[in-house]
Design brief:
It is globular and about 55 Å long. It is built from 15 helices and five strands. It has one domain. It has a three-stranded mixed β-sheet with strand order 1-2-5, with no helix packed on it. It has 333 residues and is mainly α. A hairpin with a 6-residue loop joins β1 and β2.
């Protein structure tokens, strides 16, 4: 254990240093300046958004009269993968990796959000960019579980199952502690308006089975499903003190390379289709890091290994020299 890190059984690990990727980015570009050529936009990603939205609405239409015993398995086996892909595409939009103008990326994210039922694309952009800048800072990083959340779930397998089943609800409970981020602005309101209009149209025109398919696909895509292990994979401390982990398994093919998470944090301005090139060009930077090859295996390990829980994360107070523009969130734990 390094001098600036300590671990407590019931709390997050603590780091006295800055988030690790800024220094890694400098080292990576010093060794491999040729990687700068991968920084840019990929407008073709928009067509994947349109395709995935069309698929989800089309399947919902086909299932409008089906039994729930058909709707739910289809949502788990197929719909979850399309819904998860849309999450990744929203992530691309949040980094403005599709179009040069930010407004078109934001509008694209609102479009990609429609089959998810809940309006979250624009809010995700606000919180996610803060996650990159302030990884592990409790008052700024919504990816870090709340302290009450970590204590409530702990390392219990049953409670971890419940946490994954209700993961979106726990996510919604985190933003109020992030006092330096506005919870509402005109783009968030626009996201809500478009989403409500879509939801009403689906429910009114296609019925409860169609709406239920979209809702189940959304919850499965981020919850109790091999795809849900992605949230564990990215920053849960399975090889302390390493904070960020990549996944190099086959599901990257249907998840737009979202598993290349160290590569993404090191060069967040590189679009999804070029992320493997970062690892290929700099194996000395990535081969030495602990990584995952199976989300299913990781999901089972997370659920049934009592040494892994929501407290298996790193917290820090270092803000990379950035001064707060509002009072820090109070400690509600």
């Amino acid at each position: 254990m390094s001098n600036n890190l300590s671990r407590k059984k019931k709390t997050f690990a603590f780091s006295a240093g800055p988030e690790p990727h800024r220094a890694r980015t400098r080292a990576l570009l010093e060794r491999h300046p040729e990687l700068r050529r991968y920084i840019g936009k990929n407008p073709r990603t928009f067509w994947f958004i349109l395709l995935c939205v069309t698929i989800q609405v089309g399947i919902a239409y086909l299932l409008r009269g089906a039994s729930w015993w058909i709707v739910l398995p289809v949502a788990y086996i197929f719909g979850a993968f399309v819904s998860h892909a849309l999450w990744v595409l929203i992530h691309e939009c949040s980094h403005n990796l599709i179009f040069s103008r930010a407004v078109w990326n934001t509008l694209s994210s609102i479009l990609a959000n429609l089959p998810h039922v809940f309006p979250s694309a624009v809010s995700f952009q606000r919180y996610h960019l803060q996650h990159h800048a302030f990884q592990g800072v409790y008052a700024l990083d919504a990816d870090l579980p709340s302290r009450w959340e970590a204590r409530l779930i702990g390392s219990s397998a049953a409670r971890k199952v419940c946490w994954l089943l209700l993961f979106p609800l726990f996510q919604v409970a985190r933003p109020p502690r992030l006092r330096e981020i506005r919870m509402f602005d005109r783009w968030i309101v626009l996201n809500i308006v478009f989403q409500l209009a879509f939801d009403v149209a689906v429910y009114s025109c296609l019925g409860t089975r169609a709406f239920g398919y979209l809702l189940a696909s959304f919850f499965f895509s981020v919850g109790l499903h091999p795809l849900g292990a992605r949230w564990v994979q990215e920053h849960y401390l399975l090889a302390f003190p390493q904070e960020t982990y990549s996944y190099y398994g086959p599901l990257n093919r249907v998840a737009f390379n979202v598993g290349y998470h160290n590569e993404h944090h090191d060069l967040p301005s590189v679009p999804w289709n070029q992320l493997p090139e970062i690892r290929n060009a700099a194996p000395e930077m990535y081969d030495q890091l602990t990584s995952h090859t199976s989300w299913t295996r990781l999901l089972l390990k997370f659920l049934f290994n009592s040494s892994i829980g929501l407290q298996s994360r790193t917290e820090r107070v270092d803000r990379n020299g950035v001064l707060p523009d509002a009072p820090a969130a109070p400690d509600l734990g």
